[in-house]
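Quick one: structure tokens for this chain, please?
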Amino acid sequence: MPRDHSTFTRCNSTGSISLGNPSSLNSDDEDEIESKPSPMSYKERRREAHTQAEQKRRDAIKKGYDTLQELVPTCQQTDVSGYKLSKATVLQKSIDYIQYLQQQKKKQEEERNALRKEVVALRIMQTNYEQIVKAQQTQPGHTETRISDEVKFSVFQAIMEQLFLTFSNVSVTNFSELSAGVFSWLEECCKPQTLKETVVKVLQRHNSRMRSQQPPNS
């Protein structure tokens, strides 16, 4: 059998043998080791995870600021220098806008409550007026007569003039004073008994005027 001279060589006359070049034996193994990526250490893995988490956090913050600039009208512009608004400016403008919306909401709620009270007061007035008319119609000896629209308008106009005379004392400087004044006026001048007295006086004056216009009996 022939000997493999690539592995072993004869070195001296004493019969000892020696290995070939070690670098030639291990070159393939070293290349294979170098070609494999070295595993990351625990610290490197933690550092990488922290970097990724920090990047996600920054992306989320940037997205939040971009959304604020889209939603808040006062942020949809650049500053006086022409540069993009800073994050601090975006936050402050957003806070100011939210406070403005809260004030508008409060104002609208106050106006809505005032309108509700006015509606209730008008319904009370309507009910009282209907009761007065019904009481007049059910009086003994009352005979149903057809009243012209002109007479109805004349009576209604006289009643409204009396009410407007009392309403002239209500302050109209601003909405708050107007609302407070309207409610006070309704409570003082539009009570059922007060309205009844006003209507009765108007009807009495109207009847007196009508009688004075009738020709005397021959």
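The beta strands are 8-10, 17-19.
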